[in-house]
Amino acid sequence: MSDLGIGAGAGGGGATVRRDPRASQGVLADGVIKTKPRVERNRVLVTGGAGFVGSHLCEFLVNRGDQVICIDNFFTGSKDNIAHLIGKPNFEVIRHDVVEPILLEVDQIFHLACPASPIHYKYNPIKTIKTSFLGTMNMLGLARRVRARFLLTSTSEVYGDPLQHPQTESYWGNVNPIGERSCYDEGKRAAECLTMDYHREHGIEVRIVRIFNTYGPRMALDDGRVVSNFVAQVGALMHPRVRGCDVSL
Ligand SMILES: NC(=O)c1ccc[n+]([C@@H]2O[C@H](COP(=O)([O-])OP(=O)(O)OC[C@H]3O[C@@H](n4cnc5c(N)ncnc54)[C@H](O)[C@@H]3O)[C@@H](O)[C@H]2O)c1
């Protein structure tokens, strides 16, 4: 999955060695900060780590032995999703909104923070597009400063109402910038654009993953996405009293 730099996995990081006159203050060329030499553990930031996908990712990384920092504003995420990780020595949670910058020393950034279900992203569309644009800009700024590898979770919605099935990466989509769903779709398109521009302009190593409909444990039945709606409707037909459990088939 390549010409876009799309693909999974992340690794590496660490400081560059270009110096400028401010080097004694810990600043290298191009505003890159001088980071501590790598510790034994890979330091990973997961934004949106208390959400459905993010909590599974945090769990995987913690079990792999990475030093994981989860940041989340808990708009759609929940402490319940990460309760089993709290207290582990290689896991930290910070309540933070990615619309605001944050300074951390990390080797990799998995940037997931964004409401993903239509009921949630349409609840406050301006905040949704700010989260995608400003949030991604802040996280790319951080990646640039500490030379971390960066991964953006984008979406199949970047293809809009596609005229080609299945969609390939070379297809650019059939999009609408002014509709009710545009805060999400166009926000992710802008986030992808920023990601590639940071890559071209500042040499940041990046990955973009366009996720299609995903479901599983910890996704709420009333989440409002296509699979949870389907399961909820089937459940309601077969068991009228089924309410509020997660989506595990
Ligand atoms: N699950 C899917 O089917 C699917 C499909 C396509 C794309 N994605 C993408 O994957 C990522 C994760 O999706 P998910 O399904 O886990 O959704 P989710 O709503 O469960 O998780 C999103 C997380 O981001 C947090 N968040 C939202 N705005 C934030 C902000 N401004 N600052 C900090 N945290 C914030 C939420 O509280 C939540 O924990 C999203 O970027 C989404 O667009 C998911």
Domains, number: 2
Query: Which ranges are low-confidence, i.e. pLDDT below 50, for 5 or more consecutive residues?
Result: 1-18
Categorize the overall geometry: globular
Largest sheet: 6 strands, parallel
Search tags:
alpha/beta; Rossmann fold; globular; single chain; six-stranded parallel β-sheet; 249 residues; disordered N terminus; 2 domains; 6 helices; transmembrane helix; 13% strand; binds nicotinamide-adenine-dinucleotide
Structural notes for this entry:
One of its GO terms (biological process) is D-xylose metabolic process. Pathway: Nucleotide-sugar biosynthesis; UDP-alpha-D-xylose biosynthesis; UDP-alpha-D-xylose from UDP-alpha-D-glucuronate: step 1/1. GO terms for molecular function: NAD+ binding; UDP-glucuronate decarboxylase activity. It is a single chain. This protein has two domains: 21-212, Rossmann fold (3-Layer(aba) Sandwich); 215-249, no CATH class. Helices cover 31% and strands 13% of the residues. The chain has six helices and six strands; from the N terminus they run βαβαββααβαβα. Strand 5 (149-155), helix 5 (182-202) and strand 6 (206-211) form a beta-alpha-beta unit. Helix 4 runs parallel beside helix 5 (182-202). The protein starts with 42 loop residues before the first strand and ends in an 11-residue tail after the last helix. Residues 1-18 have low confidence and may be disordered. It binds nicotinamide-adenine-dinucleotide (NAD). Nicotinamide-adenine-dinucleotide binds next to helix 1, helix 4 and strand 5.
